[in-house]
Amino acid sequence: MVKNVCCIGAGYVGGPSCAVIAYMCHDIKVTIVDLNQARIDAWNSDKLPIYEPGLDEIVFARRGKNLFFSTNVDQAIIDADLIFVSVNTPTKKTGMGAGMAADLAYIETATRRIAQVATTSKVVIEKSTVPCRTAQSMRTILEANSNKDIRFDILSNPEFLAEGTAVTDLMKPDRVLIGCLQTPDGFAAQQKLIDVYSNWIPRERIITMNLWSSELSKLAANALLAQRISSINALSAICEATGADVDEVAYACGTDSRIGPKFLKASVGFGGSCFQKDILNLVYLSEQLHLPEVAAYWKMVVTMNEYQKMRFTHRIVRTLFNTVTHKRIALLGFAFKKDTGDTRESAAITLCSYLIQEHARVAIYDPKVDAKQIRMDLTEPGVGTNEAEVDKHITICKSAYEACAGADALVICTEWDEFKMDQLDYQKIFASMQKPAFIFDGRLILDAPKLRDIGFRVETIGKSV
Ligand code: NAD
Ligand code: UDX
């Protein structure tokens, strides 16, 4: 019976996924460890390091009872029966495969640490998203350090939670996926993890397969989801040029039960730490396998996303009489989607950087992203804007009303509920803006006819004026 679980990596995945294990299995002691002291301090404080609806309740209910956050990685490894490796696997910035391949350095460091300090047998679970066959490298490192008293078994258990809905996704997942070596030892290790999840997940939702299928399924699922968004976004360009309405097209297609209605919302472009990274990872894998047509096919999903972000930005500049110089543009939403404070790969970053280069004054408001994060994102290498430009062109506001006051245009970048028609007083906003007052809805959350009645000029993604 599993009594002690450790999770290496207290990020967006390790934190919530293992907090939910502690919440659902009071007999299991769960210790989530990280090298980042500030992050662990935040997990141990009243203000958790990440915002996720419902997460505070879960952590506060179990912290100090069977849920612990610590920087003592070695002790947690020594104590654990099961170890989740949930460290970051970002796109490599330099060296071989730069800009495409996943950086596996964090995975390897964590694996070597397990191999070095373990004094008893462990089941090591690959929770991070990794290229197909990474488990083989982990296994080789672990096996090189095993002896007659200590053995390591490796499982793949990719995470499918989406940010903003992580807690519900973890409590009621569509499926839990476990991959193992198809050997008696592999099956025995797999059973231990099944027993943990079976505490709250119906057995038929726990699916099992071989390690390599499991690893590839994670990349495949993200590629397929992102591909749907790029497909509807490609159609949104046709809609804008023809008078078709992308919401109506999505509805018409989505009611076909073979297509289904989800993930067909046109937008300013997908963001988040996973989609782009995982597709590029798949592209790199295809190239390595000498499958150039396959690589080109998936690459196009990312290319289309870049095109969508630029297309929307160009539409803003074109509509504002081909110049935004010195104009105030209120940008509502900076997170990559609603209900998260995460800004990784957010479309808002591309948009802001472009508007700064066009000398606009951008007033940003996001309910969950603070000024420090926004400044950091806009001054990252590669974004195209420096500190002086950011100081000069960006104002971070405390409310949507403050951002919109005196603005020439309002741009919806994130679909936060508080920007919807019944939440914000658009009459008041109109009165406070320059005239003509423009609205650019990059998320299809506003009622354009009603806004036009107020006096706004409205431009919506996937709709012609
Ligand atoms: P993250 O950057 O938020 O967290 C990773 C944490 O691991 C960091 O806090 C880092 O300090 C820590 N870490 C790195 N090396 C370590 C080591 N050797 N010892 C201890 N701690 C170490 O990343 P994340 O968003 O939680 O993603 C983790 C993995 O899960 C990635 O592979 C990602 O692709 C995958 N994933 C992410 C999501 C998501 O929504 N964010 C969803 C599914 C899967
Ligand atoms: C994604 C996957 O959904 C999840 O299963 C995986 O574990 C991690 O990657 P996440 O990136 O957190 O999750 O959020 P998701 O809801 O998938 O949204 C990703 C991006 O696509 C966001 O920018 C979102 O706004 C955008 N999106 C989503 C659309 O533009 N249209 C849609 O119809 C859906």
Automatic annotation (TrEMBL):
It comes from the Eukaryota. The keyword Iron does not apply. It is an enzyme of class 1 (oxidoreductase). Substrate binds at residues 159-163, 218-222, 258, 265-271, 336-337, 443. Keywords: NAD, Oxidoreductase. It holds the Pfam family UDPG_MGDP_dh_C. Gene3D superfamilies: Cytochrome c1, transmembrane anchor, C-terminal, NAD(P)-binding Rossmann-like Domain. Its EC number is 1.1.1.22. One of its GO terms (cellular component) is nucleus. This is UDP-glucose 6-dehydrogenase. It comes from Actinomortierella ambigua. The gene is UGD1.
